[in-house]
Amino acid sequence: MSIEQTELCEAARKLLADIATMHPDEAWRRLTAAGWPALTAPEPLGGLAQNLTACCWLYMEMGRVLSPALLPASLLAIATLTACAASPVRDAWIERIAGGERLAVSLRDPSQDFAQGHRLRAVIGADCAGHALVVIAGEPLVAVVPLDRDVLCVARPTWDTTRTLFDLDISNAHFDTATVIARGAAAEAALDAFSIHLHVAIAADCVGAAGKILDETVTHLKNRRQFDRPLAMFQALKHRCADLKTAVVAAEALLLHYVADIDARPCAEGVLLAKGAKSIASSAFRAIAEDAMQLHGGMAMAVEHPCHLYLKRALLNEQLASLGDECDIAVARGFISSLAA
Amino acid sequence: MKFEWAPQHQAFREKIRAFLAENLPADWEHRAHHGPGSREQTEFSRQFCGKLAEAGLLIPHWPIAWGGRGMDAWCQIILAEEMWQAGEPRGAQYMNVNWIGPTLMRYGSATQQARYLPRIARGDAIWCQGFSEPDAGSDLAALRTRATRDGDIYRIEGQKIWTSYAGLAETCFLLARTGTDRKRGISIFLVPMDSAGIEVRSIPSLIGEGDIHEVFFDGTEVQGEALLGEEGGAWDIIGFSLNNERLGIPRYALARRALGRAVTILQSRGAFIGEAVRVQASRAASLCEAARLGSYDIVDQRVRGVAGTGGASAVRVATVMAERAVGEFVVEFLPDSLCEAEPLLKAHHQRAIVAGIASGAAEIQLNLVATELLGLPREPR
After folding, report:
1. Which residue from B65, B88, B25 is spatially nearest to B351, judged by alpha carbons?
2. pLDDT tens readout for residues B324-369
3. Which residue, among A135, A129, A165, has the nearest Cα to A147 in the 3D structure?
4. Shortest CB distance from B142 goes to which of A226, A301, A325?
5. What is the maximal distance between C-alpha atoms in chain A?
6. Which positions in chain B touch A226 (Cβ < 8 Å)?
7. Mean pLDDT estimate for chain B
8. DSSP code, position B66
9. Which of B135, B161, B331, B378 is best to mutate for the A interface (most A CBs within 10 A)?
10. CB neighbour burial string for B350-364, b if at least 16 within 10 angstroms, e if fewer
11. The pLDDT value given to residue A2
12. Cα B360 from Cα B325, distance rounded (Å)
């Protein structure tokens, strides 16, 4: 772990603890003051020009505390817009987002939702943003449209309550020079950038949250005494924890190495790498969250214990970006074509 | 060996189904989803069990002397399957008819039997089971709630936790310490829940409203006649009780029904296509079937009077596996049903999550499989 990572993670952990009980608007002001939405924007546009690895660290910290903060929306938008050709409209948006303006952004991969037509699913930020980032795969198209009466917004109930999701119907939204940032071949790279950032964001959230709930579980097993000894003394339980730890370590290693690859040389395989990391991380998180419930025993059934919150976030994370199967199929196709090459 | 139902068993199942069709309200599925511990369902169970009793379907497996019809263990499991599959409209009362009643028949005094059995047989009694404590879960013998004899009465001090139905029960089947020996120092008391010094707090839980509670006993006084059996005799008595309940609830029946519902929904959406969804559905169905047939082996042993060999524990674990497989299927292929739209699937999924916790940790069953079925040595104590 480099010093920068230790410092960034410690600062992030402290800030996230500080804002945990704040109103979302106040919490966002604090994150903005700390430069979080500006993390990846180019320096000339008011950004800190950090890479995807740095985002990963923050997302992992956010996952640990199941943070509801809308950082992924801002950083996704900036990643997408930065991959579009420079224009006054684009630059203005990057500056506004880096400066803390919130945007509504879908957490589903647009290429998976192509069949849904002009509908953005699993959108975060629609309750507080004035505009939505639109990324459409079929056409392809990147735009920022106002959330006015032409956009139908429906809250989407989820079992997980650590995030609030919406569905947006954008079939009546206006796509013109004021809103469209890139279209056609010029939007292809932006589409990839969106997809990479999204899968990495969810994967990192999974790795952070899985590590945290496993830590909690291990602490519980050390403290909880039955049969005159801590539960942690039972070898069967130790092995289960060791298996779970292995899954976290593997998922984290895969994610951080893939992200380092992507940072080093942005390439066409980036999307596949991100999908591979997401599939492994989200299935590990779910398995860990499920077993954490079992290892906590009766306590896990009580709403006041956070165990169930991790399970719910894990189940939702599986549905976000691309499903595990969708990721695996994409990775498999890439693997097979690499054999042919 | 091909398993087939005898005509009288098939007829018995049909009778229960007809009764359910007639007596469950149209919106039952939405009510049932609040869980068997909810006030609404507990109140409903009083009327429902009254009608069941009138129809001779509440305690058919009880001896004729106690108002039952002396039917065999096959009828008991058919009854349990149909009821659990229907969302357990008997609410808390399934415990009474399955093991509290039979335990009172075996160990209760004439006064206790006269006081409690007729009400259970009428379908009008709510009991709770005061077993687990904050520091005595899987390790039940570590319990510390104490009952101290003082002349004709016992004075009870301590705390129970995860107690189902405690908020509405009239009587608690309570385990309390009367001596220092780990197991021989535990006694059973039948404690009226309206006694002074009892406080019940609901624990908001994942699995339904009013489902689990903490119960505090602060100098609660009960008459000497509240003691069930002999002082220090609890371990043998609950051994008998749990043996009566060896199979536990036939949860595979509801899991199978939830799976059927999930597949029907997927078919109606044109989404039951492709290998993955079909393979997983078949696997879950097979696990439900394995748990069911395994349970029947245990019933068969009991009917034939053959001693159990730990197989019941394996079947309990198999049932947990079946429930989890169906829960997993729902999560994978119908994730939107975890919200309000499909109460049956939502409720099943939540129950699948706690399947290995709620009626005793699955790990304890695994210990029994290891020691009793495989003959492996016990963990050193």
Report:
1. B88
2. 999 999 999 998 888 777 889 988 898 899 899 887 899 999 999 9
3. A129
4. A226
5. 72
6. 135-139, 142
7. 92
8. G
9. B331
10. bbbbbbbbbbbbbbb
11. 59
12. 19
Asked if B325 and B262 touch (Cβ cutoff 8 Å), the reply is no
Q: Which two tokens stand for residue B299?
A: 């019933």
Q: Which of B25, B31, B40 is nearest to B168 (CA)?
A: B40
Kind of pairing between the strands at A141-146 and A103-106: unpaired
Residue of A nearest to B331 (CA): A315
pLDDT digits (tens, 9 = 90+) for A185-237: 999 999 999 999 999 999 999 999 999 999 999 999 999 999 999 999 999 99
Cα separation of A216 and B5, whole Å? 49
A290/B142 CB distance under 8 A: no
Test A297 with B362 for CB contact under 8 angstroms.
no
Residue indicated by tokens 């949250």: A209
> Cα–Cα distance between B84 and B322 in angstroms, integer?
15
φ/ψ of residue A155, rounded to 5: -65, 145
Taking the C-alpha atoms of residue A40 and residue A94, their distance in angstroms, rounded to an integer, is 10
Q: What is the sign, positive or negative, of the torsion defined by CA atoms of B47, B50, B52, B58?
A: positive
**What amino acid is encoded at B57 in this protein?**
L
Domains located in chain A, CATH noted: 189-340 (1.20.140.10)
Q: Could you tell me the maximum CA-CA distance found in chain B, to the nearest angstrom?
A: 73
The token duo for B95 is 């415990």
Q: How many other CB atoms sit within 10 Å of the CB of residue A228? A: 10
Query: Tens digits of per-residue pLDDT, B18-58?
Result: 999 999 999 888 877 777 677 788 889 999 999 999 999 99
Domains in chain B with CATH codes: 7-124 (1.10.540.10), 129-239 (2.40.110.10), 246-373 (1.20.140.10)
Question: Among A150-154, A168-172, B34-38, B311-315, which is the least confidently predicted range?
Answer: B34-38
Owner of token pair 């005509």: B7
Beta bridge partners, B130, equal B174
Residue of A nearest to B182 (CA): A227
Choosing among B33, B139, B324, which should be mutated to test the A contact, i.e. which has the most A CBs within 10 A?
B139
Chain B CB contacts of A237 under 8 Å are: 363
Residue with tokens 């997302």: A59
Name the least confident of A3-17, A246-260, B35-49, B91-105. Answer: B35-49
The answer to whether residues B79 and B61 touch, using CB atoms and an 8 Å cutoff, is: yes
Taking phi over 0 as left and psi of -120 to 50 as alpha, with beta for the rest, B270 belongs to left
Asked if B44 contacts B89 with a C-beta cutoff of 8 angstroms, the reply is yes
Across the A:B interface, residue pairs with CB atoms under 8 Å apart total 74
Both tokens assigned to B53 = 């009793």
- Is residue B288 within 8 A of residue B322, CB to CB? The reply is yes
pLDDT digits (tens, 9 = 90+) for A301-314: 999 999 999 999 99
CB A108 within 8 A of CB A165: no
Residues 6+ apart with CB under 8 A from A265: none
Residue B209 confidence class, pLDDT cut points 50, 70, 90 = low
Strand duo A103-106 + A119-124: pairing: antiparallel
d(CA B135, CA B145): 11
Residue A56 backbone dihedrals phi, psi, to 5 degrees = -55, -45
Q: How many CB atoms lie within 10 A of CB B328?
A: 17
**Chain A residues within 8 A of B356 when measuring between CB atoms:** 294
